[in-house]
Design goal:
- The chain is mainly alpha-helical.
- Helix content is 75%, strand content 0%.
- The protein has helices at residues 3-9, 15-25, 32-46, 49-59, 65-90, 106-109, 115-129, 132-144, 149-184.
- The model has no long low-confidence stretch (mean pLDDT 94).
Amino acid sequence: MSLEALKNALPEYARDLKLNLSSLAGEAGLTEQQRAGTFIACALASRERSTTSAIFSEFAPKLSPEALTAARAAASIMAMNNIYYRFTHLASAPDYKTLPARLRMNVIAKPGVDKADFELWCLAVSAINGCGVCIDSHEKILRDAGLTAEQIQAAVRIAATVHAVAATLDGEAHSADIAINEVAA
């Protein structure tokens, strides 16, 4: 599936999402690698097959094999870290914050691409997964690396749009299933 087919799969009420996909696909504030990797990592984090398929078709060819692996790794490692660190933040008992995580996270130290790009992808996935601790941590690293608020916002705008597209398509699929079941009943 192409990005154009993905936009066409969205219902008319999601016209804003179509427009946002178009504009963000050419987001000038990010390098091609930053933009493509953000789309890939966010598609994986959004967990909807047609969204992931279309975004991979559009953006995977724009990444080196190492960058594609790193974008996948960002989605993977943050799927674990966002749950763990959100728990330590939300748990009332303060001792969880002081215990070592004891989870392997080696890919963060050696992602195989520019560290700032990998951190940007981790931040975008963290926004989708709703982990404030991880958002703050990655945002600080990005600012220290020289990224601007506008660049960071661009990645989060991609995350928000990709996630909304995935949620809309998933919801539409469930609506169709419900309609079929009601007709059959």
